[in-house]
Write a structure and sequence with these properties.
By secondary structure, the chain is of the alpha/beta class. It has helices spanning 26-40, 93-104, 122-132, 162-174, 178-185, 189-194, 200-209; strands spanning 2-8, 45-51, 56-57, 61-63, 82-83, 88-90, 111-116, 138-143, 217-227, 230-239. The chain has a single domain (2-239), classed as Protocatechuate 4,5-dioxygenase, Chain B (3-Layer(aba) Sandwich), CATH 3.40.830. It contains seven helices and ten strands. Helix 3 packs across helix 7 and helix 4 crosses helix 5 (178-185). It comes from Cellulomonas rhizosphaerae. This is Extradiol ring-cleavage dioxygenase class III enzyme subunit B domain-containing protein.
């Protein structure tokens, strides 16, 4: 059963030191930590769901690294955590951001880490969400961001559709009524690709975790901002 979820950005800038001497993400970081702390409080199990190149559950000792973003551990203001036991497996940058936030929030219990590919089949993502929360009262830390096509600092070229798309998207994520959930489930994968939306697949897993006929949740927007040309938001969900 899903008890709560923390929807957090996937930007490496949430980890202190990732931006070098400049730290533009202080307010966004504080908001992300707040929703993670609230989500995991009282949960029996925690699962990090993040975008990845392939869909997989990381088994073994999950090693956190921002190296794929060109950021060494020695640059960071937070020590790199590791979760689990067994052979080392390297988490991608988005999952690593989620695990950094969990560690900083003081969550030391068992944690599963799942990465989902951006081209995953919608029904498979929904089924995965249902399976992740089937056995215990579970909190999800859902990593992903809205459009990365805002202005000249964006990772990809500016797209005039991004502001309106993200405004509607964040409104639905922040107030996840049944109607909003339906709109989120109907988000077109091609539009998400075109607008460099990294959260599409993780959000579909989240919707699947609500279950058929049991999708009443309340949400709140902790903070949203465009940072380095991408729209990010920290949002909390609580099952009602």
């Amino acid at each position: 059963m899903l008890t709560a979820a923390a929807l957090v950005p996937d930007t490496a800038l949430l980890v202190p030191g990732a931006g070098g001497r400049v730290d533009p993400a202080q307010r966004l970081r504080a908001a992300a930590l707040a929703v993670v702390e609230a989500a995991v409080a009282g949960a029996d199990a925690v699962v990090v769901v993040a975008p990845g190149r392939v869909t997989r559950e990381l088994s073994g000792r999950v090693v956190v690294s921002l190296g794929a973003a060109g950021i060494g551990d020695e640059q960071l203001g937070w020590p790199a955590p590791a979760v689990g036991d067994g052979p080392d497996v390297l988490a991608g940058v988005p999952a690593s951001v989620g695990l950094h936030l969990l560690a900083r929030a003081g969550c030391g219990g068992p944690t599963r880490v799942v990465e989902v590919a951006p081209d995953s089949v919608l029904a498979d993502l929904a089924d995965l969400g249902a399976r992740l929360v089937h056995e215990a009262a579970t909190a999800l830390v859902v990593v992903g961001s809205a459009s990365g096509r805002h202005g000249p600092d964006a990772p990809l070229a500016d797209d005039g559709r991004a502001p309106a798309y993200d405004e509607a998207l964040i409104a639905d994520l922040a107030e996840p009524t049944r109607q909003a959930q339906a709109r989120l489930a109907d988000l077109a994968l091609q539009d998400a690709r075109d607008l460099a939306v990294t959260g599409w697949a993780p959000w579909q897993v989240l919707l699947g975790s609500l279950g058929t006929g049991d999708g009443d949740v309340v949400g709140h927007l902790e903070h949203a901002e465009v940072l380095a040309g991408a729209q990010h938001a920290a949002i909390g969900w609580r099952a009602s």
